[in-house]
Every structure is written in structure tokens, then in C-alpha cells.
From TrEMBL:
SUPFAM superfamilies the UniProt entry points to: DHH phosphoesterases
Coiled coil: none
Keywords of this entry: Hydrolase
Domain DHHA1, chain residue ranges per copy: 230-316
EC number: 3.1.-.-
Pfam families: DHH (PF01368), DHHA1 (PF02272)
Signal peptide range: none
Lineage start: Bacteria, Bacillati, Bacillota, Clostridia, Peptostreptococcales
Residue ranges constituting the DDH domain according to the UniProt record: 15-162
Protein name: Bifunctional oligoribonuclease and PAP phosphatase NrnA
């Protein structure tokens, strides 16, 4: 933390970014770092080559997110890159040339699969979220400077990340420190009711039509594995974007006797995204790793290319059964 703090203090130009398929911890941690760097009068650019899920757009109303092309066209040299919540160098959602040309790559992350790919790394797999790591970093800055650097905007962003990555404080990655962090963020003005309403209480009608169709695909295997499938036809028929379907994942896992939930999502004709969630004992990151994916013990993901949905399901289920 000290090395990262010192380097931030010395630098002038920064990019903040994260992984593909943005989620709450992705956006919350990146945005909190963006706001903090802005408070230091640094030149900061939020760069991400992906769209934001509809339920997280409220965080970014006043933020300009640049594409890689837009940033490259600015012709900025000697910049530093901070990658947040990205467990793999290849999942950083910007053009590779931006990564390669950065003066220093700083990695802040909590994925167990992270191999410390940065020049400076603050990687703590045991923490609830990357937002908790950013909170720890800012808290240390508070202590060093004897001043409060977490304002309401930062607190709200961090609260969003920790709430979503812990499943509203219900997952096994929720620790006493997580509740302490949430308490402090409440004291600092985090708009908690707004976060819950926007993230969980504003799904469009079409989302529930899609959810109904998705639940009709539910298949239970050996009473321990549940599979739900989303096809492109289902998404198009209900006019729901691929990026707005993560909320369906828990429905796979939250069934009596089921240990592993598998959500299979057809992103295109040759690309299938699979989300894995476990309840008690299966380390789904090991399953994901077999298919060049990654993640956490209880939550992981992978991508299968150039296979039918049926074959993709068979492959992942067969691997998962080894751990049941």
C-alpha cells in the first residue's frame, strides 16, 4: 500500500480501468479511485471498452468513460495505469497497446487467480471485494494525512461494490472487516438506500419476462447441479441486453440440495459465457481454470468458443461433477 500511495502522490497522469463485463465491484472500485485521484488534481482518464449494466449507470451519470481509441487519440504520454478488480492481465478491458505503453501498471484486486501481473500489486484474495481494498488504501491515507479523503461519492461507489460482491452481505466472503467498512461508509454518507433501489429494485419489465423463460430451461443434475440457459433468441425476443443478465445467476444456486449453479449465456454464435456459483464446498474457480477461466472459490466464470450450447454444458457439468 505504501508503494502505491507514494507512486500516486508522485505521478500526474493516470488511467483507471477494470475487467470486461463490468459489475458493481468493477465500477465501484474504479470510480472510487477515479474520484480520489481527481481530488488530488491529477489528470485522470476512465477508460473501458465495454458497456455498463443498466442497474449501475446511476453511479456514472457525471463521468466520461473513454474508449481505448478515444484515449489513444489524445496522444498522452508518460501515463500510469491502475487496473482494479481484474484478476488476469488479459481481462483488462482496454487496448493492449495502452497497457504496454503505460509507465507503470498498478494492480489492485482480490481474485485468487491473480498472478501479480502489475509492476505494483495490492492483491488480497481473502478480502470481500476490490472495493474493500480501495477502502483500506484510502483509510491508510486518512491516517497518514490525518484528514478524511472519503467523501459521499466515494463512499457510495465503495458501498455499491461491497454490497454486490457479497450478495448483500450473504456470501462467505463477508467478514467482520466488511461490516466495519460498511458501517464507516454509512457514517461518511454513502447513499445506501439509493444503491439498493438502483441495483436491485429497478429491473425493467422485460427482464422478468426473460427470467420466466430462463427458469423454464432449469435442469437439475444429480440433485446437486442446476443449469439455466440464456440464448440469443431469448435475449432478442425480450429486448434485454446480455450485460443485464447477471442477476439471474443466483437462481441457479439457490435451490434446495443444489451445491453448484451454472448459468449458460450465449453471447454470440461462437461464444458462450458461463457463470458458476457454489453454496458450501465446491471450489468453482478450479472448474473455471480448466477452461482458462477464473474467479473465486464460490463464484467464477469462463468462456467457451466454437461449441454448441449443449456441448458447452456437457463439458462444464462433467468437470463440475468431479468436485461433487
Amino acid at each position: 500500500m505504501d508503494k502505491i500511495i507514494n507512486y500516486i502522490n508522485e505521478g500526474n497522469y493516470f488511467i483507471v480501468t477494470s475487467h470486461v463485463n463490468p459489475d458493481g465491484d468493477n465500477i465501484g472500485s474504479t470510480l472510487a479511485m477515479y474520484y480520489y485521484l481527481k481530488s488530488l488534481d491529477k489528470d485522470v482518464y476512465y477508460v473501458l471498452d465495454d458497456d455498463t449494466p443498466i442497474n449501475l449507470k446511476f453511479l456514472l451519470k457525471d463521468i466520461e468513460i473513454l474508449s481505448s481509441e478515444e484515449f489513444i487519440n489524445l496522444n498522452i504520454e508518460q501515463y500510469n495505469l491502475i487496473a482494479l478488480d481484474c484478476g488476469d492481465l488479459n481481462r483488462i478491458c482496454i487496448d493492449k497497446s495502452i497497457i504496454e505503453n503505460s509507465k507503470k501498471l498498478i494492480c489492485i484486486d482480490h481474485h485468487a487467480s491473480n498472478d501479480n501481473y502489475g509492476d505494483l500489486n495490492y492483491v488480497m484474495p481473502e478480502e470481500s471485494s476490490t472495493c474493500e481494498l480501495v477502502y483500506n488504501l484510502l483509510k491508510k491515507i486518512n491516517e497518514d494525512k490525518n484528514t478524511q479523503v472519503i467523501d459521499q461519492k466515494i463512499a457510495t461507489a465503495l458501498y455499491t461494490g461491497v454490497v454486490t460482491d457479497t450478495g448483500k452481505f450473504s456470501y462467505s466472503n463477508t467478514h467482520p472487516s466488511t461490516f466495519e467498512m460498511a458501517k464507516e461508509l454509512l457514517i461518511l454518507g454513502a447513499e445506501t438506500n439509493k444503491v439498493i433501489c438502483e441495483v436491485y429494485g429497478n429491473n425493467p419489465y422485460n427482464y422478468y419476462k426473460l427470467l420466466g423463460e430462463a427458469l423454464n430451461t432449469l435442469d437439475i443434475i444429480n440433485n446437486k447441479i442446476a443449469v439455466i440457459t440464456l440464448t440469443q433468441d431469448m435475449l432478442n425476443r425480450n429486448n434485454v441486453s446480455f450485460k443485464d443478465t447477471d442477476g439471474i445467476t443466483p437462481y441457479c444456486r439457490d435451490i434446495e440440495n443444489v451445491e453448484v449453479g451454472i448459468l449458460v449465456k450465449e453471447k454470440s454464435s461462437n461464444e458462450i459465457k458461463i457463470s458458476l456459483r457454489s453454496k458450501n464446498y465446491v471450489d468453482v474457480s478450479k472448474v473455471a481454470k480448466v477452461f482458462n477461466g477464473g474467479g473465486h472459490v464460490r463464484a467464477a466464470g469462463l468462456t467457451i468458443f466454437n461449441e454448441t450450447i449443449e456441448n458447452a454444458i456437457k463439458m462444464v457439468v462433467a468437470e463440475t461433477l468431479k468436485y461433487i
